[in-house]
């Protein structure tokens, strides 16, 4: 279905998909895949398609020439993903919907470039629960209090914002037992 900014397609039960009704006046389109809230680009390499991190540079190899109103026959292997999930609480129990957002930044940066390393963001639901869908790798997690919420932001594991990214505990996701990590925290009251 067209969203105005592009076309949205759901994958069928057998894993196949197609996009129909594509505007042929757009000579080159980009395909993106949303996997558990993490977006990836689709890149053509040697007549095959790869799913790569959205922030990777791929230029013309990520453009799909549209010769008809349908795009089909594209087979993708999705990257392995894991998740970081947990409950964020305040002094009186779980925070409310949208009061705090958890942001995962890729490890290996510094306080100077950390914002370019943002990998995923998810805000709390009404039970204070968040879930970040991430490709396997290492991350530093920030719990940010949203405007109007009565909590102090922090980095995992109880690192105050002024000590920041460089001192935050690294969380790693890998296949097997560490594909999903549960990280819950209790934020202190204040601003």
In short, what is this structure?
This protein has one helix spanning 164-167; strands at residues 19-20, 28-30, 32-35, 38-45, 48-53, 63-65, 70-71, 81-90, 93-94, 100-106, 118-123, 129-135, 137-145, 154-155, 170-173, 180-182, 185-186.
Topology of helices and strands:
Layout (H helix, E strand, L loop, with lengths): L18 E2 L7 E3 L1 E4 L2 E8 L2 E6 L9 E3 L4 E2 L9 E10 L2 E2 L5 E7 L11 E6 L5 E7 L1 E9 L8 E2 L8 H4 L2 E4 L6 E3 L2 E2 L5
Describe this structure in words.
This protein is mainly beta. It has one helix at residues 164-167, and strands spanning 19-20, 28-30, 32-35, 38-45, 48-53, 63-65, 70-71, 81-90, 93-94, 100-106, 118-123, 129-135, 137-145, 154-155, 170-173, 180-182, 185-186. Strands 8, 9, 12, 16 and 17 form a five-stranded mixed β-sheet that branches. Strand 4 and strand 5 (48-53) form a beta hairpin. The radius of gyration is 19 Å and the shape is elongated.
């Amino acid at each position: 279905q067209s969203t105005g900014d592009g076309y949205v397609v759901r994958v069928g039960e057998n894993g196949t998909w197609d996009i129909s009704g594509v505007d042929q006046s757009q000579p080159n389109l980009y395909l993106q895949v949303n996997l558990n809230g993490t977006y990836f680009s689709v890149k053509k390499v040697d007549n095959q398609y790869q799913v790569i991190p959205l922030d990777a540079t791929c230029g013309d190899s990520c453009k799909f020439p549209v010769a008809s109103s349908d795009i089909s026959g594209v087979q993708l292997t999705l990257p392995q993903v894991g998740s970081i999930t947990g409950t964020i609480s305040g002094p009186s129990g779980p925070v409310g919907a949208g009061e705090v957002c958890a942001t995962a930044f890729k490890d290996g940066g510094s306080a100077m470039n950390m914002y370019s390393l943002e990998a995923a963001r998810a805000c709390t639901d009404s039970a204070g629960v968040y879930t970040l869908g991430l490709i396997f790798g290492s991350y530093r997690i920030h719990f940010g209090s949203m405007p109007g919420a009565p909590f102090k932001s922090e980095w995992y594991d109880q690192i105050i914002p002024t000590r920041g990214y460089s001192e935050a505990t690294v969380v790693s996701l890998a296949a097997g037992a560490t594909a999903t990590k549960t990280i819950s925290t209790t934020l202190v009251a204040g601003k």
